[in-house]
Amino acid sequence: MTLPYPTIADCVGNTPLVRLQRMAGNTSNTLLLKLEGNNPAGSVKDRPALSMIARAELRGQIRPGDTLIEATSGNTGIALAMAAAIKGYKMILIMPDNGSAERKAAMTAYGAELVLVTKDEGMEGARDLAGRMAAEGRGRVLDQFANDDNPEAHYASTGPEIWRQTQGTITHFVSSMGTTGTIMGISRYLKEQSPAIQIVGLQPMEGASIPGIRRWPEEYLPKIYEASRVDRIIDMAQREAEDTTRRLAREEGIFCGVSSGGAVAGMLRLSQEVENAVIVAIICDRGDRYLSTGIFDAPN
After folding, report:
1. What Enzyme Commission number(s) does the record list for this chain (predicted)?
2. What is the DSSP letter of 297?
3. Are 50 and 73 contacting, i.e. CB atoms less than 8 angstroms apart?
């Protein structure tokens, strides 16, 4: 008998789309935020994490009991640790040691083994180490940076949800860029519905350190990234992203991470340039995994 109850995996996706209120100001535009922190493991990465594992299973590339390896700055690692716990895989996650304590604790809470590289080695070093470990036969790398199952998750779910929730009225989409899976998959879907929709990506300015988003050196640019799918890229200052993150919590009651604050800062810039637009931005995760960094203790 099939029980009429969902599993935790069934609860990934179908996240709310809410309207920005006080911070929107006096504008003819509608500013909407997709609350991906409402996913079970707390971020937009729940979608590709389950997608990469489930699709690899269907292809016969992995099976429960295998060891999976992934380099991560945090959210993908937490999501993969959850997915591995659901499906019965051993998970080794490699991340820079300057990641927040909450992120590290969440990964190990799900049963993952955590391997740290130095801040100076960064995500590039983490990715290199993952490759070496796989070459040594210690497990299989899912490789979110080159795995088409990453953007496919957003093409199949996040993009259609946004189109449906806006009733096809969306004119602009804004997203911070890390692995770029989110923006690639959503761009592909939305452009198929209406090529006029503008896709705007966020990356940190030179020297800025915003958790979850990167300016990749050319040799480390994610293979899933297609520049033609992004109409415009905004360089975001760290202070502007952090200030907007604090404002979202204090003025809107939306508690999120700094990459999300950067996306909303970009949305607010964009809103000053257009009229009668429907702009959607991704709120990647929740703010509780950044509390130990002091970001919310800083003055306005």
Report:
1. 2.5.1.47
2. T
3. no
CB-CB neighbours of 250 under 10 Å: 13
- For residue 100, indicate whether it is catalytic: no
Per-residue pLDDT of the chain (300 residues; tens, 9 = 90+): 567 899 999 999 999 999 999 999 999 999 999 999 999 999 999 999 999 999 999 999 999 999 999 999 889 999 999 999 999 999 999 999 988 899 999 999 999 999 999 989 988 899 999 999 999 999 999 999 999 999 999 999 999 999 999 999 999 999 999 999 999 999 999 999 999 999 999 999 988 888 878 888 888 889 999 999 999 999 999 999 999 999 999 999 999 999 999 999 999 999 999 999 999 999 999 999 999 999 998 565
Catalytic residue from among 73, 259, 260, 271: 259
Report the b/e string of 34-55 with b at 16+ CB within 10 A. Answer: bbbbbbbbbbbbbbbbbbbbeb
Strand-pair category, 67-71 with 90-96: parallel
What is d(CA 97, CA 231) in angstroms, rounded to the nearest whole number?
34
Active site residue 45: yes
DSSP labels, 54-86? HHHHHTTS--TT-EEEEE-SSHHHHHHHHHHHH
HEC string for 138-190: CCEECCCCCCCHHHHHHHHHHHHHHHHHCCCCCCEEEEECCCCHHHHHHHHHH
Catalytic entry in 45, 87, 104, 191: 45
* Residues 163-190 as b or e (16 or more Cβ within 10 Å = b): bebbeeebbbbbbbbbbbbbbbbbbbbb
Mode of pairing for the β-strands spanning 30-35 and 17-19: antiparallel
